[in-house]
Amino acid sequence: MSKKTIGIFIGSLRKESFSKKIALSVAKMLEGQFETRLVELGGLAMFNQDFDDSGNTPPAWTAFRNEVKALDAFLFVTPEYNRCVPAVLKNALDIGSRPYGHSVWDGKPGGVISVSIGKLGGFGANHDLRQAVVFLNIFMLQQPEAYIGGVANILDAAGNITDAGTRDFLQSYADAFAAWINKIADR
Ligand SMILES: Cc1cc2nc3c(=O)[nH]c(=O)nc-3n(C[C@H](O)[C@H](O)[C@H](O)COP(=O)(O)O)c2cc1C
Hints:
about 190 residues, six-stranded parallel sheet
């Protein structure tokens, strides 16, 4: 049987994004059991329903919707912008949720890891994202919750996690997420 594919959605477009580095580490932890792929969000024009309504859907939206439809699970790794989920990630959620009745998010398992240079670990963004994805009927892993604070101090120049406690925690998160994906698939 072919491996299930987890799409990874990162809420930062920054080249040296800490969120992306954490996401790549978690992807490695999942790779034995799953295929993983980073889904590119930077080329998606801001959501405007007129594009779909007038038959001028941007090709990048169509490609994104098709890419998401083919995934088996979603992992969101995001910083917090002003206590909320960054616009790039919310925009992707909105684009995937339309046209009405054709959401590409419906009924699949998901997880969220929030990342911050501060101490609160992106709690606000984590729950801001949850508000939308629960509505979109993504079956979100509830526990463990993953709030990675002080992220600037736990990565080396190559993006490796240098803090053993964080590494162990993210491994336990990856294990729980893997079990959750299989549980939802077998239901
Ligand atoms: C527009 C903006 C808003 C931010 N707001 C928050 C915030 O509300 N809470 C927080 O912990 N960090 C905040 N930060 C700091 C981010 O945690 C930090 O920039 C982080 O490195 C962004 O993630 P990235 O490295 O994946 O790009 C903000 C940064 C920016 C650019």
